[in-house]
Amino acid sequence: MTVNIKRIPKKKFLMPGNAACPGCPETMGMRYLKMALGDNFVMVIPAGCSSVIQGIAPRSGIYAPILNIVFAAGASAAAGMKAGFESIGRKDVEVVVWAGDGGTGDIGFQALSGAAERDDDILYICVDNEAYMNTGIQRSSLTPYGAWTTTTWTGKREHKKNIPLIMIAHGVKYVATASVGYPTDFIAKVKKASQIRGFKYIHLLAPCPVGWRFDPALTGEIGQLAVKTGLFPLYEYENGKFQLSPLARRYKDPSNRVPVVEYLKLQGRYKHLINKPEEIKKIEEYIESIWYMIDVLEKAFNPKEEARKLLGSL
Amino acid sequence: MVVKTLTGNYAVAYAVKLARVNVVSAYPITPQTTIVEKLSEMIEKGELNARMIRVESEHSALAAVYGAASAGARAFTATSSHGLLYMHEVVWWAAGSRIPLVMAVVTRAIGPPWNIHVDHQDILDQRDSGWIIAVAQENQEVLDLTLQAFKISEDPRVYLPMMVGLDGFILSHTTAPVDIPDQELVDSWLPPRRQPYIIAPESEVVMGNIAPDEDHFMMRYSMAASMEAAKKVIEEVDKEYGEIFGRSYGGLVECYKCEDAEYFVVIMGSWAGDAKKAVDTLREQNIPVGVVRIRFVRPWPREKLLEILSGAKGVLVFDRAVSMGSTGILFSEVAQTLYPLNISLKGLVAGLAGVDVGPSRIEAEILKFIKQAEEGAIYTPTEWILPEKYAGRYPSSPKEVIAK
Ligand SMILES: Cc1ncc(C[n+]2csc(CCOP(=O)(O)OP(=O)(O)O)c2C)c(N)n1
Ligand code: SF4
Ligand SMILES: [Mg+2]
Q1: Which domains does chain B have, with CATH numbers?
Q2: What are the residues facing A41 on neighbouring strands?
Q3: Quick one: which of A40, A247, B30, B174 is 20 to 30 A from B180 by CA?
Q4: Residues of chain A with C-beta less than 8 angstroms from the C-beta of B93
């Protein structure tokens, strides 16, 4: 699906001067969400920066109906809302969960897994800024290897948990990765997901200037570099078919990738390891492992019927 | 009207069906499980036109029905013990949101050690949350209360969620004849769903984002005011239910042989039946004693208790739940209520983890209490009725354990 920028609604989704930090990726993402979905949706937001960004009740800086909910209950509250709407004959309302990486991969993971397994008809968006930003930059299971946080002062020792892959393993209708660095790609994926009935998951990489320690003017650029270095491949998994998103395909070839240090050196959270080749090597090896996985996924979930059959007979 | 022999849990399920609930979500836990099983069956057979969300935990169960209710649906869940504790933060969130909801709580002890038998620790642990909390004595009342819960919770003067407690196994798994009201009659009595707001695309409502501290404070104040208003609504509903369906229970509290009583037992739940039996026996001996059965723990029936107990010589409270480091939970509620009266007061903690007490033991405790009170006003906040196996080996007051 291609997105024509001229056709994107101009209606404002966020009040200027809302409570987010300058360069906030979450507000960028929300704006794109509204551009993709228009008006007929409600948001469910578990605890996180996006709870605060809304501003002070009874007003809100986001022009959308929102059910704020306890940290662990994004997916379950949304599943209930959808069932509620359906049960009173309002089948067309889209229910969108907007949750952080902590609300998705840690405390909210059980509810997420439950809703995915039940194939509840919701769109779940994980806004991944790779730490608990709202409480002051603590590590989450989605914080990458080496990153400084206020609970990993010398750098996290474990790699990032691969939630989109786990969602694919749930066999849901739709899984995609996206980055705030590529708005039209994200918008296209949201639009596509909203056409699908059943459980949809989009993992949106959201570089956070405050937590990642970079210049707030660079949010979009860092969001692109994550893709260009091969660290964060963009792809879609749809009804058993896996494919790299067009703009990410070229990074399958390592020679097309930007060296990962170009990405790391812009971010203060990697300051302590930028001059340690063995640490950089670990991250490069991680990138290799990610692409190995992509290769496996492409083969396993090949759009070509032949390959699927082959796999089925194994 | 049909009379069926039903377990307490099935009585809940029939009430949910009569209320034409739109969304059900629950997670299995003994002794609640047969409620979800029955509702699943009703939904799958098409007897109840509702959506069933088979969640992976109680936290999700309550969040799901809360989400459904926020979208405008009538929703129901049920749980027990650890399931209820696991829900706890959502319990508070739902009440603070002022979203009408109904939950059945099949009361059960809390571990460790694992134990599936009745006490009231689980439901009373929720008492500060802002839910209306009622506890039934027998299966007919379970059905009636569950049905009434929808009307009370969805009343604009209330707009608070409501829990209906029924004692694990003693009610949940024991059958008794239950009169199931006609659907048409229920339909004419129970209005369509009402709620303070709906979160939908056209409503642009945002619920739960940060509010100024003063507004947050005032939201608590308004909940407290609605709790007060709920007292009236509960009495009204009980009365009109009696007129239409033929059964009234006394509203916030039920009085049994209270009129000329001088001494009173305060008790809640199924063992109130045992207390009534004990009182029957004592009445045969012309001992002026009555039973005040707490039906609603929240809102707490302060005014009503003061009215009933103002002429009393003494009040004996039976508690199936204790606040560790303090007293039985009902006792502390009763004691603060009766503060203006200068009467004998005693609290007994008993029946924890399903340990049986029975009418004869209650009778003996009443006699003992009356004797103590007649010798001079007493104030004994906490004594424990120990299980027979241990009685005599340990003092009845935990305080004396240290002394030894
Ligand atoms: C049960 C519970 N535990 C802890 C918190 C405190 N808390 C609020 S937001 C948050 C972190 C959010 O992290 P994430 O989901 O990644 O969202 P972000 O703030 O990064 O957008 C935490 C730990 C909470 N609100 N509820
Ligand atoms: S900490 Fe990061 S994600 Fe949170 S509001 Fe600030 S910029 Fe946005
Ligand atoms: Mg985060």
Answers
A1: 2-245 (3.40.50.970), 253-403 (3.40.50.920)
A2: A94
A3: B30
A4: 69-70
